[in-house]
Amino acid sequence: MNFYKSLLLALLLTSSQLTAYAAGPKLSASEAFEKKDDGTFLKKHEAILARGKSGPVGLLFLGDSITERWKIAPHIWDAYYGKYQPANFGIGGDRTQNVIWRIEHGELDGISPKVTVLMLGTNNSLDYTAEEIAAADRKIVDMIRAKLPQTKILLLGVFPRGPRDPKGAPVTEAGVAEAAKRMQTIDAVNQDLAKLDDGKTIRFLNINHVFLGQDGRIPNTIMPDQLHPGAAGYQLWADAMQPTLEGMLK
């Protein structure tokens, strides 16, 4: 692009549009992407690979920080899942693209869980449409089935989230509006994903109602930061999922 075309472009576009133009096309929600951080992502990926090689995996949890943070409730994890040789393949901050990359780089190789529990998409919910997120989750389901043809998949609806400031500051009107936008997307994603339930090898389960109070909001006792369950939230998750999971594990 020559100088005059660049000048014309700058005059025609707003600053935010110009930034997006300079950054190039947005990464597809269904495209594999290695997270670029301080090295934490790759260290966790290596730890997951090591877990897969260290012994049998009978029950696999795959997802983002909501899955990874089962570690804050080890007593619940052990009581409900300990007998199934469980493995937690959750990594904080992951989007659909990161999990696709992880699967492409060996995380499902050499294991044979009876059931894989998948819940993913909340970190995509601001920047992507429901159709894009659901398509990425469907791709991940297809990847699991290709890698683990004998494994049943329990696909959970993306959990609800409320207004929040990631740094703990007071929630602003903009934060309330963002949460509403995200929930509109999440609800649409879950409606789409429900269509994958075949009653046999893939089951869809939406347990979002258990996290809500009578006013329709998420109590702080359940999700202290309006995104990640606390211990009480993980207890609700385990109780709500157990009947379906037990049936799939038989």
Automatic annotation (TrEMBL):
Keyword Signal among UniProt keywords: yes
Signal peptide: 1-22
SUPFAM superfamilies: SGNH hydrolase
Keyword list, A-Z: Signal
Ranges that cross the membrane: none
Family membership noted in the UniProt record: Belongs to the 'GDSL' lipolytic enzyme family. Platelet-activating factor acetylhydrolase IB beta/gamma subunits subfamily.
Protein name as catalogued: GDSL family lipase
Source organism of this protein record: Duganella margarita
